Amino acid sequence: MGKIVAGISTSHVPAVGHAVDAGKQQEPYWAPMFEGYEFSKQWVKDNPADVDIIVYNDHASYFGMEIMPTFAMGIADSYAICDEGYGRRPIPDVEGAPELSTHIAASLILDDFDMTILNVLEVDHGLTVPMSLMFGTPEKWPTKVIPLPVNVVMYPQPSGERCLSLGKAIKRAVESFDDDVKVRIWGTGGMSHQIQGARAGLINLPWDKQFMDDLVNQPEVLQYKPHLEYMIEAGSEGVELIMWLIMRGALGDKVNEVYRFNHVPASNTSVGHLILTPKED
Which are the catalytic amino acids? Predict the structure, then answer.
C-alpha cells in the first residue's frame, strides 16, 4: 500500500524564485535564508519519495475571478509553468503522477470532499518556489508531483477544521492505493505577511513560532482558529497557513520534528519551514 513518509511546510515567497533564477543565493540579503534550507536539501536527497503532494494556492495566475475552486487536484501527466505577468520562470515543467492522483481524487470525492479535477493546469510560484528551495536548480525535477491548489485568495476560504480533515482523508486515500509508493506532502504559504494597505510589511514572529509549535504538538487547537485571527495577527495573507493544516492532518496524530527554520525578512515576509515525519505507534 501507499505510505506518507514525511511532511514539509515552507513559505513560497515569489521574490525567492526570482533570487534563485538570478543566481542571488549568496548575496548578503538572501544568503542567511538560503543557508537555512541546506539541511533540507540534503535531507530530501537522503530520504527520497516517489511522489510529492504539494498543497499551495494559485495567485490569480491560472485561476481567477471567473473560476476559483476551494479544493482542486491535478491528475495530469505534467504541468507547465505559469506566466505570472513577467514571463515564465526558467525552470522545468513539473511531472505528474496521474495514476496515484486519480486514485486520491476519487477517494476524496467518495469521502465527501467536493474536489475540482484538473486535467490541465499551469502552476505558479506557490508550487514552484518551494520546489526550488528544496531541490535547487535541476535540469529535471527529481520527483513526481500532485498539485493540490486551495483557495486562500477569495472569500470564503475553507476552515481550518476542513483543511485538517482533508489531510486525514488524503492519508486514508494514499494508504488504500495498491502499489507500494512513498509519498511526501507539503503545506506551503505564509508565514505572517501583508502586501498591501496601512499594515503592509507586517511580521509577527512570536505568533508564527507559536503556530509552528501548535502545528507539531496540538493541531486540534489550530483547526478552530478563526480566519479573523490570522488576519489580525499574521496579516491579510497569513491565512495561507491553513494549508499547512492539510499537510499536518495527513501525518497522523503524532509526529517527529526533524527540522525547523525561521528567517525574517525575505521580501517583507516571515519565512517558516518544517520537516516532520509520522511517529510510529
Answer: 125, 193
